[in-house]
Amino acid sequence: MARWVLPVCLFAGTITAVMLPLNTLHAQEAAKKTITGKVTDDAGKPLQGVTVGAKGTGNQTTTDANGLYVLKNLTGTETIAFSFVGFTAREAAVGSNTELNMSLVPDVGALTDVVVVGYGSRKRTEVTGATSSVTGEKLRNVQTANLTQALQGQIPGVLVTANTFRPGAGSTIRIRGNRSLSASNEPLFVVDGFPVSYTIDDMNPADIETVDVLKDAAATAIYGVRGANGVVQITTRKGKAGKTAVSYQGSRSWDEIIRPLPVFNGPEIADAWRQAFFADRSYTNTRAVATVSNPLYYYPTASADIALFWTRFGSLEQWNSIKDAYQWRVYDPATNTFIAAKRATTSAERDLMAALGVTSQLDSVDIYDPSKVKSYDWLNEVGLRTGSTDNHNVSVTGGTEKLKASLNLGYFKQRGIEYAQDYTRYTAGTSVDFKPVKFINFGTTINYTHAITNSSTSSYANASGMIPLVQPYDSNGNWMMFPNQDRQVINAINDRHTVFDETTADRVFGNIFAEFTLYKGLKFKTMYGLDRRTSVRGQFNGAQSSIRLGSAANATQTTNEATSWVWDNILTYNTRIKEDHSINVTLLQELQSLNRSSSLTMSANNLIFEQQKWYSLQRNTDATVTGSGTYSASQYLSYMGRIEYGFKSKYLLTLSTRYDNSSVLAEGSKGAYFPAASVAWQIDRENFFTGQSLFTSARLRAGYGEVGNASIAPYQTAGPLGFTNYNWGNGTAAIGTAPTTFKTPNLSWEKTATTNIGLEFAMLKNRISGTIDVYKSKTTDQLQNRSIPAANGVTSVYFNLGRVDNKGIEIALTTQNMIKPNFRWSTDWMFSANKEEIVDIDGSGNSNYANLWILGQPLQVYWSYKKDGIFQYGDTAAGKGSLPTVYWVKNGRTNVNYQPGRIKIVDTNGDSSFSPSDKVVLGSHNPRFIASLTNTLTYKNWELNFMFYFRAGGLYRVPRPGLVGRYQSPKVNYWTPSNPSNEYQQPTQTSDIPSFWEGLTYREATHVRLRNVTLTYKLPKNISQKMFMNNLAFYVSAVNPILWHSASDYDPETAPYREFAGNTTNQVGPTSYSYKSWIVGVRVDL
Amino acid sequence: MNKKIINMNKIFKNTAYVLAGAALLLASSCKKFIEEELVTTLTEDYYKTDVGLEDLVKSAYTPLQWRFIGEQSYCMNNFGTDEFREGDQFNNVRYNDYDANLNANDAFVNDLWINNYAGIRRCNQGIDLIGKYNNPGSTVLGTTAQKNLRIAELKALRGFYYFVLVQQLGGVPLVTEVPAEPQYEFPRASVEQVYNQIIADLRDAGPALPWRAPATNRGRASRAMAFHFLAKAYLTRGSAVTDKRGQKPTDMDSAIFYANDVIANSGHTLEVDYGGLFNAAYPDGVIPPLGENGTPPASNKAKIDLNNASNEIIFAAQFSSNLNLAGLNNQTHLFYGTQYDAGIPGMARDFFNGRPFRRLRPTDYTIDIFDKINDSRFFKTFQTVYYRNVTSNSGLATWTAANAPNPSLVGKPRVGVGDTSGLFIVNPSNMPISSATASAMRYFAVYLRYRQATTGGPITTDFSNNKYLAMIKMNDPIRLTNTNNEARGIRNGTYARLAETYLIRAEANGRKGDYTSALADVNVLRTRGAYKAGEARSPQIWLYMGGPTGTASTVSSNQATTTLFTTNAPSELYPPSVTSTPDRFIHFMLNERTRELCGEFYRWDDLVRTETLFDRTKLYNPDISPSFATFHKLRPIPYLQMVAQTINGKPMSAADIAAYQNPGY
């Protein structure tokens, strides 16, 4: 028996409040009565399986095939609730009625919600393209700073990867893979019908009502050139006719790091340094290369330690941390006499040293107890703090049929887990929709954001590089710039007071529109939207900082001004012919001024006083302020036509075409048509459908469309010149202009054609509902900034060449696992897999390794040395090892890279030597699939929501350890003569960056994350209403509390894609530190 | 009701009018709407103007900077030679080791290729467009003379860029015109063809250029520059014995002719004092008396400006001290320093002594080839004294009652601020200094070239890959900003100075057997390099080297004679394989080039030119690896360039690439 109620109610706060009857607080015993009625949809069609029940009693029933129900044993004081999957629940008081008919309207968030399709919105049953939706409510279950983070795991086909985990930072969104080699792969964000030109992360997630993602070309083609990478449509909260609703939501979180960095502690770093010197035969009394009179040691030896830890940089403090590990017979600095107690060696030790050629310690070694080495925990002591986030949002909505208005206010402040990093955002938004007469409707929406991002140098990264044998402060508590006297090891903890990088951004995003009903079904709408972002970035480096190292302060101020606007003129005609035929026509003319932007940067060195920061830069001892500026603008002019035809609401056809012109392309190639066609078949309206009971509803869609991409930098086609700096001997500037590329008069659009087939269904009386989409896209005429022979005098030119394919499958399921009067459990399942493949680059059938474009591989490919391990003694053994015969000596050459303890890679080309031609494809940064699982359990007034996020496959890179005997390093298992590790090479002070180090950096990125757990308690209505509130809910939540990942000590999401075509010394690995949050919050609806 | 319908119609009509009007308006302005407006960007249309062409010419100079803006400077020109070996921080050691890591994927050869062809294209484009430019009204390019001047500059630069390429890479694609669209076929020209082009360009350019660029335009190509490199190109081509460079019997005469023209007629003159070229690196100030503090040594920008403006310099890449004009700037000051800022008490990193990257350390050959007693160039090339610059006395050794020169000094640091903290003593091997002598010295750190712990005991050295003689010619104590670690220097990057013109003429004469003329030129430099009467010099000369005390002139004792190469003179350290006088003369000239030009980024080319790279490097560079082979006289052709190219319309196959590549790589 389907005793269940609606899974998700979008407008929970406001709608419920509006509809709540204010009488009947408690039931009275009275005469039993029976009520009957019929439940239909908004078209009058009977609905079968609707739950009809008396609220709070457990007394309920369901409607039959004709939509009829009978509910008995009532007192007349009850409220009857009608609920059905895909429809908005409704309620009515029993009162004196004996018959209660009800018509339910389709609900957003389910199979039959309203979808924003671009230049209009449609019921889901009318949509023929592949779109997925998520409600703001659902997004907010995972508390995040911004929309892009919140989307992770919510929508199949949408891959969300954090840019960084710094406060305020957003994520990169990829919809159905990457498709452009050189042009942008960013999706288009559209807010309330207007494309957003700048970061969507300025927006307050609390203001979001729904998010609709248009994924296939049939859906996005109406956005033409800007829709190639998918479209994320955002609808903000608006006023509604009816009661005024006020809601408040507030929360506070405490944030801490997910994966603390593993670094060497005091005794471990001492060992690693000794090894590095031993490897170069200079773990000796003087650090010079061992001789007869300057013996080499293998085991810790006091005299060699003094040379290594004390006299090398002159750090007595560093040596003092080691000192107590020895037992001193004489310790007399005044006479430079240091004699440590010794113990006899074991035979195993003697054998080892003999094998290593160490002759100095054979009989006895200094007694050394590593547990007595002092160690300072930089990471925890001075690297991190507990982060926090405060979030307050107020929303007021209300209105009448003629005038609707809303006001949203938000405050968000995040203190990062690293020192001197924070993000503050103030948002205010208002919208008005005015309908003075029946045929005119106009309104405006304005959103304003003021965001301040602060950062300094990374306190955690710096702490992770500090030597644990010394402390940040001297005995007087003063900060020391070089704690162990090594001028390359800079203590940056003072940077939190002296290094600032502050960006203040003001964003105004608004629009104004007017809609005229010209004739029955014929409407004209004109709308103008403006997106303007100004930001000021101030960077200041004080003298006492890791950046200036005591030199006078310097500072830079950068202002950015960017404006985009869109003007749309839309004519729509909507009619029905003989009831069976529905026709909807949309015509559009659109002008876009895209990102007219300018910037100005001023900077100065050697500031006279520090409190001025980046203001009054002219106050500097150089009397020089340097400046630079930029300007850029591009425009689009477009026309679009769309016809939607429906027959008996059973067969639906959408045809559209768009004609786009872009200023960034060459004269004569500026314009192109982008057509699309899609069909849908409402299977459940066929007669044969009624004969079965497995499926409740079913719908099949198919679409094909083409979209374009011209998102390359402006001014490329006419042969732009670059500016060169030079000067004549007396200081005269000689600024030149040089060609940077060839003219590209034929440069045109990159085109993506997508085919998509989708099935939407509900089965087992709506206990299971879902969507399955399969798609294939082909992106041709790639806009490539391609390398050409440099003998041309320039190194790259834009071309239309090459092809990238994407194909994939997306599944979204919702299951109602348990439905009991007081207990409900539902699960949302999401799965998506995308395969991205470069099919052709330039028609030659060759990969382009310079750009890391490899045929048959995705874009973010890892192409490098394949790790084989570490060279072991066995490899060098006479007669059996590979080294002596193959690698060690070849053509009379010896190579230091092939000795025991060095990195061994796979000789993939079999030429018996290691070289860049041994590089192979190791994998990609892309996941094989992503999936998520969200459970919602409700018991009486309690709700528990938790979400798992899976990311399977793909690689990422971990950092190169600094095994050079001078620096701190991530803790790794390195090779030593007595520890034949196969993980990392032997430390050596002469090989800062060992050859083939890249091969050791790749790790499987597969991981599972408990993304969110939220427990909500709603105060019972009767209590909250006594407090003059319609709703009062408290919740506790944990975001990202658990990460399951064992391939490394890092969080894979913190490591962005980095790969290099050539040999490089560039460091790889995580660039920020992910954190988990513990949240408490409250929601109030008045 | 009626009224409403009328209203409706009216609105409908009005809207239609508005729409139609708007549509019309838009239709006319739409084309304009999507045109690009160039605000901060220029296109090649700019080259239709005289200002644009002038700016194109200026841009042809910027690739000159590349040699000096990074580690390629020493890697491609000083590593892997007889003069320098590895310091203890060597990120690009492949250029010294010639191991498998020096291969076609190397970034420096690729950058060299990109950089020089970018320069060549700008020259080609300018030569073409200026030749076609016709606007008598122009004040800058109105006359034929004005146009010819700029074309000559560009030809001189083009010749220069090809000269650099051919010496490093051998025959390279010869591109002398700007293609209309991207080209993919770039067959390599022969070395001979490239030299013909270089010589033709430089011969064309020279006569149209003034002998020296006017002071306001210093740094532009001049006739002296063109003829200096012309002489060098002839010498290089003509030096080939086994290599095929298209050498002609007249090459030496041509080299002499053009070198002579520069020396006689250009107006460039030698600095009176060798140090006048580099003295920005020499300390100002005086050493304080014992027990007192003075000031740490410093330098000043005026000295750098004077060094840069020296009339001896014929051609140099210009670097600006103006932040607005700065790029990566000259970074060569980083690479030669020793680690004076660790291990020498009283010393911390400062501007004057520079930021020591510790890449290059002189070989024994380099130290030994100088006559340190008579030739001032040694102590003007290498830094032996580090003056204390740390003001705090903490941890510094003090005078005790036992060793204080007078009782008032007891308890005071043995070295005051500005006094000698660290001392490198370059004593000869036959005059080792005892450990006892060294430890009795009052300096905080003493590094002996030859130490003897006990009388008659083994002789060791204190010089190491961390503590060695730092070459200071490139030092730049001012730099672009006064941030402690500022890497961007403001010293110009010298490509040619008159002293080298003398050496070119000397070598060409000697190769013809005219040793008298050769020695005359060498001795011009030796006279200049000798100590003048009264000139202060390092006390090491008489304390530890057996030289005379006092400040008498060493001009006469510093003269070269034919016996230096007609016999196997031990002071010239001839390789054992060198036995004939003509051969010894070549090696003598290489020795003389070390004495004059050591570290100035000529050495690798010189050794390749004289076909001595393998023998001399193998002999004198102890860090060289066994993989060093004769084929290393050429750099690899960059792989990225080969894969971007085609042959007969097809991408290069592995066999094509092997055929295109220099042998051995």
Describe this structure in words.
The complex is a heterodimer of chains A (1086) and B (665). Helix content of chain A is 9%, strand content 44%. In chain A, the strands form 14 sheets. Chain A has a 22-stranded antiparallel barrel. Chain A has a five-stranded mixed β-sheet with strand order 10-15-16-13-14. In chain A, strands 3-2-5-6 form a four-stranded antiparallel β-sheet, with no helix packed on it. In chain A, a hairpin with an 8-residue loop joins β11 (158-162) and β12. In chain A, α6 runs antiparallel to α7. Chain A is globular. In chain A, 49% of the residues are buried. The model of chain A is unreliable at 1-30, 108-112 and 882-893 (pLDDT under 50). Chain B has 665 residues and is mainly alpha-helical. Helix content of chain B is 39%, strand content 6%. Chain B has a three-stranded mixed β-sheet, with no helix packed on it. In chain B, β13 (646-647) and β14 (650-651) form a beta hairpin. The N and C termini of chain B lie far apart (93 Å). The model of chain B is unreliable at 1-6 (pLDDT under 50). The interface between A and B is large, with 102 and 109 residues.
Concise summary:
The complex is a heterodimer of chains A (1086) and B (665). Chain A has 1086 residues and is mostly beta strands.
Alpha plus pi helix count of chain B:
22
Helix count from the secondary structure assignment of chain A: 14
Counting DSSP E segments of at least 2 residues, the number of strands of chain B comes to 14
Largest interface: A-B, 102 and 109 residues
Structural class of chain B: mainly alpha
Strand content of chain B: 5-15%
N/C terminus separation of chain B? 93 Å
Helical coverage of chain A, percent range: under 10%
Please state the overall shape of chain B, judged from the principal axes of the Cα atoms.
Answer: globular
| Assembly level | heterodimer
| Unreliable stretches of chain A | 1-30, 108-112, 882-893
Main β-sheet of chain A: number of strands, strand sense, barrel status? Answer: 22 strands, antiparallel, barrel
Portion of residues in beta strands of chain A equals 35-45%
